[in-house]
Amino acid sequence: MNATSPEAATGRGPVADPGRVVLLTTSHRVAPGLLSWPAWQALRGADRVLCADGAHPQLPYLREAGIPVDEAAPTAEQLVDACAGGRTVVVVATGEGEPALTDGLARLAGSGRVRMPELELLPASYDLPGARLLDLVQVMDRIRAECPWSSRQTHKGLAKYGIEEAYELVEAIEDGDREELREELGDVLLQVIFHARIAEEDGEAPFSIDDVAGGIVTKLIHRHPHVFGDETATTPEEVKEHWRRTKAVEKQRSSVTEGIPLGQPGLALAAKLASRVRTAGLDVPLPPVEGIGYELLALAVRAESAGVDPEAALRAAARAYRDAIRESEEENPGED
Prior knowledge:
By secondary structure, this protein is α/β, with parallel strands linked by helices. It contains 14 helices and five strands.
């Protein structure tokens, strides 16, 4: 008994291969031309390459590689027709993607009127971790150039905002609010980017955000010889010792008090001084003077030696006191 093909059974000829559509996406945060190997394979093997954006950053590099690109924005129907007969069409997506085209293909597929080509989404380049920082730099550049308020700001004028954002970050951490923490980290990062952008305009000693990042990268590598060098450290205490030793060589300080900002909150300042004294192995008695300030100093030193952050402890106590005040107000509402 001879087998009968589906085409013979229906009286129709062979069904044409509907072909293949490859939607090629790229990241503007990666240098044009740095595409993945599967992307280059798809481009070289395509029967036709289309791109709706004549100014797409990839086009010069594709043409330089000998890949002809048609600057066209086909409809879904036109794209299906272009693939008929087993042809492969690569669509180089614009920065916004191709929502009109993909929506049209979805509607066409749902209609059941045509046999659809195979559709593949192929990322040609990827964002590396931290890529959105490039967007932040670009946004800050534009704001600095075009915003009437931002374009007039100085390091001194922004200083108070840096302090405020740092405190709000600490509050989010102590409250355990993850969403607030993410937002406040962004606000602190904005201060860094903003100051670095202003610094680029300095006529005598300009520096950029790349200089800032480069400096901290160098510092971190130098202060972590147990990670990037030949030294070893198996405990947090050994890591701290590496840090203190390399920092002392870098700074060449003549006193353990050097580098301590005196403008920080009083309890934090007292605790920092006590920490420097303790880690240096010095025996420095507290001044034998009576008064509230010296009593607070003694409490801060005692807290630091016990591993307690006096600022955090006082904030926690103050919050508890605030809650007690609110409870008292609710129990004894004032008269209108």
